[in-house]
Amino acid sequence: MYRRIAEDLRSKIESGDLSPGEQLPTENQLRKAYDASRNTVRDAIGWLANHWLVETRAGRGTFVTEHITPVVSTLIGDPEAGGSDVYLAELTKKGRTPENSPPRVEIQRAPDRVARALRIDPGTLVVSRHQERLIDGTPWSLETSFYPWRLVEAGAVRLAEPEDIVEGAVRYLAQEDVIKQVGYRETVAVRAPDDNEATFFKFHDDGRVPVFETFRLAFGPNGERFRLTITVYAADRNRFRVDVGDVPTTSFATDDDD
């Protein structure tokens, strides 16, 4: 009996009668609709959940699962990389629709962890550039880059302007003969999202989805640290890949390339 109920609900999901994100009827409504016991209905919902067709949210009910096609990002790349034009072009080639918000630019005193990473005194002036990224209309990542104010004084005035640097800040800094990136170090941490991140990513309030937080520290020719980029990715829509050895070079991929 529970399989018959589950198969009927699955057919409604696959036909679109129950759309992604839509709430299923309550347990009592399902019992009446199928003339079934509470345990039978729960077994049917459990079967659907085990097949990733629905998800139950504590205190709210059961909902049709919203499937998101992940983006796979390669962590090992070009030491001169850093332009949003590459990011946008690669995703477009794969049939995705990327979108970057206009940058929010602030001149501020360096927070402690930024100062430590950039080897500057706490409270030193830095420029922060923050952007939100969406793919196919879905919130994908949050990125904030910090630059010592001395780079602006050296001629990189566009860092402090609230406009997108389409060619990428790394390339811009090299073109202005301010500093050339010779490499970067990237580390990845996993943590629970804060309230702002949960709101942006539209996470459910059950706390089941963590975020990846990457720290990319850029180095100049003499080991000078000149850029810290902190990016927060939703774990349910992002994958990371590391290429080692003689493999095809790509910046972005899909699950088919895993």
Shape: elongated
**How would you sum up the major sheet?**
7 strands, antiparallel
Radius of gyration: 23 Å
The CATH architecture category of the largest domain equals: 3-Layer(aba) Sandwich
Sheet-strand content, in percent, reads 25-35%
H/E element sequence:
HHHEEEHEEHEEHHEHEEEE
Number of strands: 12
- Counted by DSSP, the helix tally is 8
Give the SSE layout:
Layout: H1 2-15, H2 27-34, H3 38-50, E1 54-57, E2 61-64, E3 71-74, H4 84-93, E4 98-100, E5 104-109, H5 112-118, E6 125-135, E7 138-148, H6 149-153, H7 169-175, E8 183-191, H8 195-201, E9 211-219, E10 225-234, E11 238-241, E12 252-253
Parallel strand pairs: 3-11
Antiparallel strand pairs: 1-2, 3-12, 4-6, 5-6, 6-7, 7-10, 8-9, 9-10
Helix pairs in contact: 1-3, 2-3
What can you see in these coordinates?
The protein is of the alpha+beta class and 258 residues long. The chain has two domains: 2-64, Arc Repressor Mutant, subunit A (Orthogonal Bundle), CATH 1.10.10; 71-257, Chorismate lyase, CATH 3.40.1410.10. It contains eight helices and twelve strands. A hairpin with a 5-residue loop joins β9 (211-219) and β10. The longest helix has 14 residues, at 2-15. It is elongated. Residues 251-258 have low confidence and may be disordered.
Can you tag this structure with a few keywords?
alpha+beta; seven-stranded antiparallel beta sheet; elongated; Arc Repressor Mutant, subunit A; disordered C terminus
